[in-house]
TrEMBL record, chain A:
Domain of life: Bacteria
Origin organism lineage: Bacteria, Pseudomonadati, Thermodesulfobacteriota, Desulfobacteria, Desulfobacterales
Domain ACT: 5-79
Protein name, as recorded: Amino acid binding ACT domain-containing protein
Stored PROSITE patterns: ACT
Family annotation (Gene3D superfamilies): VC0802-like
Protein's organism: Desulfotignum phosphitoxidans DSM 13687
Cited Pfam families: ACT_8 (PF19571)
Automatic annotation (TrEMBL), chain B:
Species of the source: Desulfotignum phosphitoxidans DSM 13687
Top enzyme class: ligase
Documented EC number(s): 6.2.1.30
Keyword Ligase set for record: yes
Name of the protein in its database record: Phenylacetate-coenzyme A ligase
Keyword Metal-binding: no
Primary gene name: paaK
Length: 143, 434
């Protein structure tokens, strides 16, 4: 049920982000969602793409440090309080969000959020119990 | 393990000292007669060659420093006429004008046998194939190792530095068993091999002889595990003879055996110039006993080490010097604290985070020195979580503070952004203008 995110270490230098996206463009990889976390010197770019294998290979070949992380992509209803429906049952059982970002999804009227929780197994269990839809990697590459 | 020159390398102390004294007296008499610089030095100190009655008397002789060699550039320190000089080398000139050194035919011969001793101590023998990645040219590493390998009767591949991908192909196809080079270049080579999908496990090396720059015990572990060989340290400098002044043995890897039948080694306090007893750390000083073209008397190397006189389990009786901890001239003084790049390297390797590609940047902001330690990230330690990367930076900075008492900013940088060198690594960029 878990989706996979690739993460890339980038130094804070002019044009570095554009280089990463150009490498992905040239490898014909489509970016579905992204977030950039940064400090003054470096950043970690987190990406959900349609082809992890291809993206990772292309970036590695250009000398980037690439990691893979399991994340949860969750459907969130597009209405006031939608996000709380997901978060409330989790925090009540002490599952913590490490980071999250939103997903571009033209085909679905619900929003999709990508989460990294401190305890994925427990999060997944809770989400299932509350009938909250989790999107798989296959779904993502089909989007 | 066979010892190449067993009569000398296992000689009892008294016999050795008798040879040393005889050779020292001859050398001193010769430089006094032929090199105006030394005559001047002796005259200024109020001594003559006849005053050298025992090895202890050497302590009254003034030191020779790098600047003296520079002042006599290029041939002023030569003790023979040019017709007898068959080879010229020069130091790398890392810290300024290079110094020029010469060799007679007999000097080249002596050097070859010292390098043959060294290669044998590292486990090489007549059947071995030596991949010599030390640079050929004015730098003494390449030709020194080359002649030694031939003297030993081994096969030598004179590949020199550079052309890294081709070197890896050669390693696969020619099946060399002994690897020689500077540790920083060899690690670069290992990275390139990795990129090419070549695993050193599948190559044929049993030993690696690494030198020309100080490297740490932690670096040894890294080299040994990455390259699947025994890594031994070799020491030398062109002013003395080149590589082959001392070497570790493969069996013990505990200190470098100084070939004392050709050089007298002393450790001095770099501040006072006083000779320090065995075991104490200070600056290495060498006096040549057999060099014809370019003898040096009490040459201050700027390298920091200490001496251990205990005979080694390998059978060699020569005194052992510890791996040089750094050089007095790459010692950085940061806010009054002495810092050697090798100390920072130890901290980095102890954190097991970082491949040994790092660079120290020193700057002065206002009146305050700042030290930035740039270290390359790698996939083993990379995390998508900014917090853990920052924790890692802080942990390294904390350990540096703990160990050296210096506040450093640790900065993670992308892989392969710190420049790789073909020879000696550039570890320090000092932007302060003194």
């Amino acid at each position: 049920m878990l989706a996979e995110q690739i993460s890339i270490f980038i130094e804070n230098k002019e044009g570095r982000l554009a280089e990463v996206t150009a490498i992905l463009r040239d490898a014909n990889v489509n970016i579905r969602a992204l977030s950039l976390a940064d400090t003054t010197d470096f950043g970690v770019l987190r990406l959900i793409v349609n082809d992890n294998e291809k993206a990772e290979q292309a970036l590695r070949k250009e000398g980037f440090t690439v990691g893979r992380t399991k994340v949860l992509a969750v459907e969130v209803s597009d209405e006031p309080g939608g996000l709380n429906k997901v978060l409330d049952p989790l925090w009540m059982q002490n599952v913590n969000v490490e980071y999250m970002y939103a997903f571009a999804n033209p085909q679905c009227k619900n929003a999709i959020m990508v989460f990294r929780f401190d305890d994925h197994d427990k999060a997944l269990e809770i989400l299932e119990k509350h009938q909250i839809k989790v999107i798989t990697t296959e779904d993502i590459s089909r989007l | 393990m066979p010892i190449f020159d067993i009569d000398f390398e296992t000689m009892p102390r008294e016999g050795l000292e008798a040879i040393q004294l005889r050779r020292l007296q001859t050398t001193i008499a010769r430089v006094y007669a032929t090199v105006p610089f030394y005559r001047q030095q002796f005259d200024n100190a109020g001594i003559t060659p006849k005053d050298i009655q025992s090895l202890k008397d050497l302590q009254h002789v003034p030191f020779t420093i790098k600047q003296d060699l520079r002042d006599n550039y290029p041939y002023g320190m030569f003790a023979v006429p040019m017709e007898q000089v068959v080879r010229i080398h020069a130091s790398s000139g890392t810290t300024g004008q290079p110094t020029v050194v010469g060799y007679t035919r007999r000097d080249v011969d002596t050097w070859a046998s010292l390098m043959a001793r060294s290669l044998a101590a590292a486990g090489a023998g007549a059947g071995d194939i030596i991949h010599n990645a030390f640079g050929y040219g004015l730098f003494t590493g390449g030709l020194g190792a080359h002649y030694g390998a031939e003297r030993l009767g081994a096969s030598v591949i004179p590949v020199s530095g550079g052309n890294t991908k081709r070197q890896i192909t050669i390693m696969k196809d020619f099946k060399p068993t002994i690897l020689c080079g500077t540790p920083s270049y060899i690690l670069h080579l290992a990275e390139v091999a990795d990129d090419m999908g070549v695993d050193f496990k599948d190559l044929f090396f049993k030993s690696g002889i690494f030198g020309a720059e100080p490297w740490t015990e932690n670096m040894r572990q890294e080299l040994e595990s990455k390259l699947h060989l025994k890594a031994v340290d070799i020491y030398g400098l062109s002013e003395i003879i080149g590589p082959g002044v001392s070497i570790e043995c493969k069996e013990e890897q505990k200190g470098l055996h100084v070939f004392e039948d050709h050089f007298i080694v002393e450790i001095i306090d770099p501040e006072t110039g006083e000779v320090l007893p065995y075991g104490e750390s200070g600056e290495l000083v060498f006096t040549s006993l057999t060099k014809e073209a370019f003898p040096v008397i009490r040459y201050r190397t700027r390298d920091i080490s200490s001496l251990n006189p205990t005979p080694c389990a390998c059978g060699r009786t020569f005194v052992r010097m510890t791996k040089p901890a750094g050089r007095t001239d790459d010692m950085l003084i940061i806010r009054g604290v002495n810092v050697f790049p090798s100390q920072i390297e130890s901290v980095l390797m102890e954190n097991q985070t970082i491949r040994p590609h790092y660079q120290l940047e020193v700057d002065r902001k206002g009146n305050l020195d700042t030290l930035t330690v740039k270290v390359e990230i790698n996939e083993k330690v990379f995390s998508d979580d900014i917090k853990s990367l920052q924790t890692m930076e802080n942990k390294i900075a904390y350990d540096i503070k703990e160990m050296l008492g210096v506040t450093a900013k640790v900065r993670l940088v992308e892989p392969k952004t710190i420049q790789r060198s073909q020879g000696k690594a550039v570890r320090v960029i000092d932007k302060r203008n003194f």
